[in-house]
Amino acid sequence: MSEEMTIIDEVVRAVRKVVPAERGRVGLHEPTFVGRESEYVLDCLNTGWVSSVGAYVDRFEAMLAEYTGVEYAVATVNGTAALHVALLLAGVEAGDEVLMPALTFIATANAVSYCGAVPHFVDSEEDRLGIDPAALAEHLGRIAERRGERWYNRETGARLGTIVPMHTFGHPVDIIALQDVCARYGLVIVEDAAESLGASYRGVHTGGFGRVAALSFNGNKIITTGGGGAILTSDAALGRRAKHLTTTARVTHRWAVTHDAVGYNYRLPNLNAALGCAQMERLPAMLEQKRALAARYIAAFAEVDGVRFVAEPADSRSNYWLNAILLAPEHAGQRDALLQVLNDAGLMTRPCWTLMHQLPMYTSCPRASLPVAEAIERRLLNLPSSPFLA
Ligand SMILES: *Cc1c(COP(=O)(O)O)cnc(C)c1O
Fold first, then answer.
1. Which of 27, 150, 217, 311 is the most buried (most CB within 10 A)?
2. Ligand 1 atom nearest residue 221's Cα
3. How many Cα atoms sit within 13 Å of 295 on the Cβ side?
4. Strand locations in the chain, DSSP E?
5. DSSP letters along 215-228, please?
6. pLDDT digit string (tens) for 56-68?
7. Which H helix or E strand runs over 363?
8. What is the residue with the minimal CA distance to atom 13 of ligand 1?
9. Whose CA is nearest to atom 9 of ligand 1?
10. Are 293 and 390 in contact (CB under 8 A)?
11. At what angle do helices 55-68 and 270-301 cross, to 10 degrees?
């Protein structure tokens, strides 16, 4: 038997210790509705409050703000819409370059494009999987140029004003170090916290560090509203503006239908918010299950040489949204064979996203050198992560 076969056998054996064959086919992250979900959704149907107005939206927003420790949460139709408006609130303008990791889900880059701005890709850290503050500082030292109060990319002439760190799979970015670099270059932080509800850094919930942040409640996220998202901020003016822009910028009046800006129809329907309220009630219990599942993976992979389970980084509490392993560089060539064997066995596993700068619409975007993101992409696999597997 070749050495490469051994690593495949060992990984399959480790995953099987956590997810035995009796489980049948398992997905990457499947939602469960074992709380008051049907009661709340039926309440919407029975009362007729299914659409853009209703008490569940207010209640869901209040639950999100309280849980994450921010002042304002504004629910939206999905996380991408939340990111789009969050970027506008941060002051992103057409022609700007917005710094963001190359290693992220497509929504981060697309939201930047919706603003008429250009993504500018930076590298990630191997242990946290998020933006590397030291590599960012080095890159900015090379390309950033100050003119008056603002910073520009000296190579393209575009303004650099905003950065979007993303807390990959629910592991917090090294956000304090990042804030330090951002302060030096006048960068506003918009957190893509779509994957990190329930994760915190030094006791502060992810989404509480940036001027604005975005959450997602898509069907595969830690809690779901079917489809949905939220904008978080502790700035009162931005909170009001977020609500205004996501509700067609309608001016409040007893009967007149008037608008004072190009707004968006991004408001989360009450029906979806009802689902969200019931899911939020269960979030603490689900987070416990996620930790228990991660602990079982950690134990199972402890004896496997050449594989690192991506565990909670320093000073952080991860939500373990998607469990991940990194193959040692010498085993990277076995990644696809491993994906084949695991998926054939009914264990849904996935590689990392194709890096943003390798996608056809983003190949010509400005970027830093990305050696770590590229190495992670070749070696990472996501493992079945549904909380009920714990
Ligand atoms: C899920 C996700 C989003 C938002 O996705 P929606 O499907 O629009 O809710 C944004 N960024 C990242 C990193 C995500 O994983």
1. 217
2. 1
3. 7
4. 72-76, 97-101, 118-122, 144-147, 150-153, 159-163, 188-192, 200-201, 204-205, 212-216, 229-233, 250-251, 258-259, 307-309, 316-317, 323-327, 350-351, 380-383
5. EE--TTSSS--SS-
6. 999 999 999 999 9
7. none
8. 105
9. 79
10. yes
11. 30
Q: pTM for this one?
A: 0.97
Tracing tokens 């370059």 back to the chain, one arrives at 97
Report residues whose beta carbon is within 6 angstroms of any ligand 1 atom. Answer: 78-80, 83, 104-105, 107-108, 166, 192, 194-195, 216, 218, 229
Identity of the amino acid at 250: R
What's at 213, amino acid-wise? A
Centre of ligand 1 to C-alpha 324, Å, is 18
Q: Which two three-digit tokens encode residue 43?
A: 């309440």
Per-residue burial over 354-376, b if 16 or more Cβ lie within 10 Å, else e, is ebbbeeeebeebbbbebebbbbb
Nearest one of 123, 108, 115 to 88, comparing CA atoms:
115
Neighbours of 251 (CB within 10 A): 11
The answer to whether 103 and 129 are in contact (CB under 8 A) is yes
Quick one: tokens of 373? Answer: 């993101």
Residue from 28, 77, 80 to probe ligand 1 pocket by mutation (most atoms less than 8 Å from CB): 80
CB atoms within 10 A of CB 167: 31
